[in-house]
């Protein structure tokens, strides 16, 4: 899972702040993985593209899975804080919301889509996603003109694209004027997992000390990522894993602005 770009000190930070895989975090991740496996096994999931409907159970189970991830984060961050690290992320800070969230699963896109649709804000966020998509496309064309191949294929090209996008200072489609996330409860794992252990100024890629910042992505364990991939395979929506293009494509090409029916 990609999350947000992290600093040049990634390996140093990773040494001090390990992904937790211990007797308390492992059962949380195992339960989360089991839930996504259960959802993927439902026959309606495979037929979603035709009927645009899902069992209500899948929504309930999904909420439970994301709550388990929240528990995992609280536990993990608690352990990290005990080692003397300060987490600088909190209400009112949107320093990382000028990145393009990446590594988003198709399932998460459905959850976000449902959330904004229910809130009656689909049109507004579709337009904003398209605008962000256009900025991303402009950044990509600049890279192409700068000598990188027409298609962004390698990991380093992809990382450069995301880094250059964050330099464009285009705020996330879901960021309010008061720097709040307007889909906070439904935001993707890519946003939830990102933590800064140095002041927010160092999260600005244009800051001269950006590379000194300590930022980590506390991604779920591999078994969860694998189950989400399986689930996406069953959904077969073939969406981009980037927030703006993925959501725009889901809205216009798959859902065609209609509602998800929960049965
Ligand atoms: S979805 Fe919310 S948390 Fe994530 S980048 Fe956008 S505004 Fe920030």
Structurally, the number of domains stands at: 1
Q: How many beta-strand segments?
A: 4
Q: Indicate the low-confidence ranges by residue numbers.
A: 8-16
Integer average pLDDT:
91
Catalogue the ligands: iron/sulfur cluster
Inertia-based shape: globular
**Percentage beta strand:** under 5%
Report on the structure:
With 263 residues, the protein is mainly alpha-helical. The protein has one domain. Helix content is 53%, strand content 4%. Helix 2 packs parallel to helix 10, helix 6 crosses helix 11 and helix 7 packs across helix 8. Bound molecules: iron/sulfur cluster.
Can you describe this structure in just a few lines?
The chain is mainly alpha-helical.
Question: What's the layout of helices and strands?
Answer:
Blueprint: H1 10-16, H2 25-40, H3 43-46, H4 48-51, E1 53-54, H5 56-82, H6 106-118, H7 122-145, H8 155-167, H9 189-192, E2 194-196, E3 215-217, H10 222-235, H11 243-255, E4 261-262
Parallel strand pairs: 1-4
Antiparallel strand pairs: 2-3
Question: Notable features of this structure?
Answer:
mainly alpha, two-stranded parallel ribbon, 11 helices, binds iron/sulfur cluster
């Amino acid at each position: 899972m990609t999350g947000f770009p992290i600093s040049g000190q990634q390996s140093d930070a990773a040494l001090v702040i390990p992904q937790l895989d211990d007797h308390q975090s492992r059962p949380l991740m195992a339960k989360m993985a089991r839930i996504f496996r259960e959802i993927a096994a439902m026959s309606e999931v495979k037929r979603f593209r035709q009927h645009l409907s899902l069992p209500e159970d899948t929504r309930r189970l999904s909420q439970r899975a994301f709550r388990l991830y929240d528990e995992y984060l609280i536990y993990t961050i608690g352990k990290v804080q005990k080692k003397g690290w300060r987490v600088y992320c909190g209400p009112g800070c949107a320093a990382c919301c000028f990145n393009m969230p990446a590594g988003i699963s198709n399932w998460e896109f459905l959850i976000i889509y449902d959330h904004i649709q229910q809130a009656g804000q689909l049109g507004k966020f579709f337009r904003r996603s398209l605008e962000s998509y256009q900025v991303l496309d402009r950044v990509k064309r600049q890279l192409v003109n700068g000598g990188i191949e027409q298609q962004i294929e390698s990991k380093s090209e992809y990382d450069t694209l995301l880094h250059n996008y964050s330099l464009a200072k285009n705020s996330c489609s879901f960021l309010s004027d008061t720097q709040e996330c307007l889909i906070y409860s439904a935001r993707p794992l890519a946003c939830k997992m990102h933590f800064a252990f140095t002041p927010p100024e160092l999260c600005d890629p244009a800051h001269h000390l950006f590379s000194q910042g300590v930022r980590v992505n506390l991604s779920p364990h591999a078994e969860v990522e694998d189950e989400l991939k399986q689930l996406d395979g069953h959904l077969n929506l073939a969406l981009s894993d980037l927030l703006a293009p993925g959501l725009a494509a889901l809205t216009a090409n798959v859902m065609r602005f209609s509602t998800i029916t929960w049965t």
